[in-house]
Amino acid sequence: MSYKIVALPGDGIGPEILNGSLEILSQLSSDFNFNYEIETHDFGGIAIDNHGTPLPDTTLNACKQADAILLGAVGGPKWTDPNNRPEQGLLGIRKSLGLFANIRPTTVTSGTSHLSPIKKERVAGTDFILVRELTGGIYFGEPKHWNEKQALDSLTYTREEIERIARVAFDLAQKRHKKLTSVDKENVLSSSKLWRKVINDVANEYPDVEVNHLLVDACAMHLITNPSQFDVIVTENLFGDILSDEASVIPGSLGLSPSASFSENGPRLYEPIHGSAPDIANQDKANPFGMLLSLVMCLRESLKETEAANKLESVVYQLIEEEKTTRDLNGNYNTSDIFKFVKQNL
Ligand code: NAD
Ligand code: IPM
Ligand code: MN
């Protein structure tokens, strides 16, 4: 069995963190005896430069035929045409592949809690998964337009869209600590009134899961003051985008947070949650751990290479504990040093 993987390095720090991670994948495949084929495709700004569009058909078709997709990051100050932006490629691939569920874990281990900007005793024991709805809401709602005088975005959700993401979150909670927090803005938004109603309806199918509801502003506060209270959080697209960047600060850096996105039955896509970090691109400064932990999720969920996943994950946490980290985590090392350490420790 040989897995088909599509690599989309993208822009900015994307190629730096993804190419190094592919060398780690190669080492893992010989250590743990599995085979894969890899195809690299243009995506995002680089694809605009080379093909005139951020998501060329060749890239999308390759992704559709893959077992898994690894993505670095897209975007940057170079691409400013509002009608042809790298980020449209990202939204396009999510929509085309039906990647409605985005899993964004936040974990603080006992050996890494000192890296948090929040007091150690507050973050100790934090281990939650944010389930972000990824193909609906204000990102995709129509009509949508703007001109110099007026702008419109539409925030729509259907019962079906909320039900399917709710089931993903309830299923996860059932396998974990059976605690689900649904986040909305039910005191103001119509879409949130439906969201809360549907979450409560689906909750009837999961009597063993304790459900509570938080308004998004209060959730933002609870994430900082008491992050260890959460087990699984489920929320809509835009709230999930914002809260997951906030959550990434709890273990110490946006550069640490991985993600996995999946559809009903197609290939899954794995990417760190951060962007292309143009301010540090091409300087060997990027933290590659978010990308490497996304590779861990890929090995575990798509390739079913559990031992390789566990090994890489333990190496990443060991390096963080030993303070072999990049500057964003107060370390003294470059991206390339981190990849060397990972190879040695594997
Ligand atoms: P960003 O996530 O790229 O960067 C925010 C800050 O965090 C920057 O100071 C950056 O240096 C730092 N940072 C991010 N990742 C890091 C890492 N791995 N190591 C060390 N530091 C890291 O967000 P931004 O600056 O608002 O956006 C830059 C571009 O990225 C924009 O074009 C945006 O649209 C795009 N973006 C893409 C994705 C994606 O491809 N999935 C996600 C978010 C933003
Ligand atoms: C993310 C990013 C994207 C999003 C942007 C680049 C479109 O911020 O993956 O979190 O908003 O979903
Ligand atoms: Mn984001």
Automatic annotation (TrEMBL):
UniProt catalytic activity: (2R,3S)-3-isopropylmalate + NAD(+) = 4-methyl-2-oxopentanoate + CO2 + NADH
Keywords on record: Amino-acid biosynthesis, Branched-chain amino acid biosynthesis, Cytoplasm, Leucine biosynthesis, Magnesium, Manganese, Metal-binding, NAD, Oxidoreductase
Binding residues for NAD(+): 275-287
Cofactor section: Mn(2+); Mg(2+)
Membrane-spanning intervals of the chain: none
KW NAD (keyword) present: yes
Pathway involvement of the protein, from the record: Amino-acid biosynthesis; L-leucine biosynthesis; L-leucine from 3-methyl-2-oxobutanoate: step 3/4
Record's subcellular location: Cytoplasm
NAD is among the record's keywords: yes
Gene Ontology CC terms: cytosol
Quaternary data: Homodimer.
Function: Catalyzes the oxidation of 3-carboxy-2-hydroxy-4-methylpentanoate (3-isopropylmalate) to 3-carboxy-4-methyl-2-oxopentanoate. The product decarboxylates to 4-methyl-2 oxopentanoate.
NCBIfam families linked to this entry: leuB
Family under the similarity heading: Belongs to the isocitrate and isopropylmalate dehydrogenases family. LeuB type 1 subfamily.
Protein name as it appears in the record: 3-isopropylmalate dehydrogenase
